[in-house]
């Protein structure tokens, strides 16, 4: 592997440069080989359940009636995104800032009803944050819509503001994978380089100083707030030691953090919020530049996912680990556990072959190879799907009429709702929401 000098253009993407030897031929994206139906649970007051305007909450998984076979799902903060077998994107939920990517104004209850987003090609991967959605097309282009926010309010998605319809957010790049935090997006390109855009206040972009991450800061009186905001919103390369010659082969994002796996090694570089050790560093201060996490570099990871103050990770052997804050039971380590300052195996799932995990703000989920769905953490709004609103300190098997004869394959959790992709093990693939 050799490093290459890249020139950053005014639009935040790389210009022409000498081609290096390293090329990322493939990337470990979510498996879309299985198609099934979508189940939802939790709060649906702004349409994020997709069950129509008369059903505003569910405490057990309920079926979303769709006319497509679904291969992937993402729960945003207050909206839901589905990917169909044909590579189309369907959205429902809050559209105040354009997170649905389609026109809902003047159409009664349009946010409560699933509908398709118009995109210029087949989509292979989706991601969603609090108020934005992103879609990776099979040709490597990325389109996004919605907005980012920081402590000062709405940032916009691009320098021109919110985007209520799909906008090509990073250009002149072949992107292999995308990942969304609450208010940032991470991109992995075909050269093994990582780009980011969005809110930088917790260090999650990995390319700004602590002072410059706050858009109210003025550098030497020479950079306006608008210019500073533009730099955050235009995708830029993460800040690495130019002599490190690092290339990456996988990326993940938590609510306020980012994780990048080095190609052909177990090393994981992290940046973002670490106030409960959730990105695996000893120093509790936010990390603004990519730093090797010795904790996360101990294992071979299949998937890393994180909420506000905790991270749930799945290794290649199907074991689940947790790190971070214990409140509400989100770690799944039991009632008497302490905050986890290092990765702890979730013992309740030790004998299970776990194939997928997810984290909401203060929730956690796991799906086993047998199709069982386990949930733990905050249950206040019914988002665990257990039928109760109690918190769960240990992984709890989710049972529902809509799970009978079905096998869970994927899970995703937002602020107050959760979404599950299930495939049928019986010959009937339709049903009514319970």
From TrEMBL:
One of its GO terms (cellular component) is cytoplasm. Keywords: Guanine-nucleotide releasing factor, Repeat. Residues 1-23 are annotated as: Disordered. Residues 38-420 form the RCC1-like domain. InterPro entries: Ran_GTPase-activating, RCC1-like_dom, RCC1/BLIP-II, Reg_chr_condens. Pfam families: WD40_RLD (PF25390). RCC repeats lie at residues 36-86, 87-139, 140-191, 266-317, 318-370, 371-424. It comes from the Eukaryota. Coiled coil: none annotated. The keyword Nucleus does not apply. GO terms for molecular function: guanyl-nucleotide exchange factor activity. The keyword Repeat applies. PROSITE patterns: RCC1_1 (PS00625), RCC1_2 (PS00626), RCC1_3 (PS50012). This is RCC1-like domain-containing protein. It comes from Callosobruchus maculatus. The lineage of its organism: Eukaryota, Metazoa, Ecdysozoa, Arthropoda, Hexapoda.
